[in-house]
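Hi U.,

Before I forget, here's the chain from the pilot set. I'm dumping it here mostly so it's searchable later in email.
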Amino acid sequence: MNNPIWIMTSAFDQLNLDEVIKKAKETGVQGLDVCVFRKDGTRDDFVATHMDYDNFSLDTAKATLGKFNEARLSMSLGAFDNLIGGDPGQRIKNQNHLLKLIRMAHLMGGDDNDIKIGTFVGYNHELGNEENGFEKNLEEYARVFGPIIKYAEDLGVTVLYENCPMEGWRAAGYTGTFNNLSGVLAARKLMYAMIPSKAHGEIYDPSHDVWQHTDPVEVIKNTDMDRLKRIHVKSTRNNADPFWGNMYPTQLVDAALAKKAGVPHPQNEWDRHHYEATLPGFGVGDSMDWRKFINTLQERGFSGPYEIENEAGLSKGTGNMAAIMQGYKATVLNLSPLLWSLADNGYQYPEEEFKEMEVLASKDIPVVTMDDLEY
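Structure:
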């Protein structure tokens, strides 16, 4: 089995799409998960907008497919925000933005071209603070995503949830750090039971489970494989914390008191759990067994792409484009003997396995909003 390796384009936030494609060809990958975040969104961490979602037409779709086919690259789209909680005004904007991405994917062939849409679910803490708050979030998820998934299904598009808990998404003074419903396998299984449609599934990032002291191999063993469409490639190096323990987030206390006691406390919202984001094979070791993880995926028949998400401190974190590219190239080299067959020129992805994306949509369709859907 020769799984393709892709790049998630968030690390190239300063480049346009043509420049990103050029960088992708330089790294030797087979596809791009194109980030299309709202330009007026509230996030400022690892976001990028590499397509014009407000002026996307059938002609744009045809031109984009031609550009990717010429580069011999496959594609998906994604934007990852809170769709069921947070500021109500931003929430509805995030929901409507997801609908725009679903339309874009449809115009480019959707599932027939394996163009999926990546997203978060988010979390509603007003509901979460109530008794049975987790279940109330599941109910809110079903209320909001029921019509979204129906819309996607009607257009032949699959929506994929990513499993980052978004541990820094609230102020450090809050006790908990679970800010994305799809952050645990149990929630994802419950979500599919609530909305049985095949038009939604998941992108699994093992690094998030590693710092939660959950074995990604066991997660894959219990995953519904028909739902799993993408793997994010990102590593985590866990660091021991004898002060607060590694099971719960670091708690915010008075800085003077913490200094007097010699106790560490959060320096920012993301400084709650003790780990370092890394890339496999680049600079430092990590706290998971990639060979065992990939072997388990292969045993379970996973045939989708492995998408490199570069948030590594030694790569994307430097702000240096050469170091960013080194991180990508090192990761490709690290994965290639695990994913690709050995040829005369080493471990290589078979060129003949590339499948051109077809122009399938015959007519344009209007942009819709949540007000247009029944929910």
